[in-house]
Amino acid sequence: METISSSVWQRKGSSIVFDKRSLGGLISAGAVISLRRALGWSKEIPAAPPVPGPTILVSGLETVVETAPPQDAEEFLTRRIRPLLIALQYRWTDCGLVFGFSSHAKAFEETPLDEEVLFMRRDRKTVRLSKGLWDGSSALNMKRIVREADKPGEEITVGYYVARIS
Fold this sequence. Notes:
The protein is α/β, with parallel strands linked by helices. Helices cover 33% and strands 27% of the residues. A 7-stranded mixed sheet has the order 1-9-10-2-5-4-3. It has a 3-stranded antiparallel sheet with strand order 6-7-8. β3, α2 and β4 form a beta-alpha-beta unit. α3 (61-67) packs antiparallel against α4 (70-91).
């Protein structure tokens, strides 16, 4: 899987981010909205993003993925979230949509052959996160978001990003 270290994920496409440092700046910038509010856009997308900057941080998806039965969570991603992402990518071309997760990086597992990201829930059940969110785009277009670690020359994975869903 390719990696990116730029901030393009904040200005375009959609991503999953679980790094507290990366999310902290978005929170302090007032970019946070609830999942419920974002789902309301399925009926009518506002003319402009409802936050002051180029990034919308959506909170609440982790709760759905963590608490719903895995098959229901995957269906929710496929039927509710993916159509929203597709609609938003055409409406707000200069805006990044970020789903914030508080889980540790170890809760996200990359499968080597499919280049798919799985979410390991606290009950040890698995949800096919990237497949549900991005479908076929995940294998071809998904990138690992990294930032420099405290030690020079080391990188930390902060999340996953897809610029455009096909």
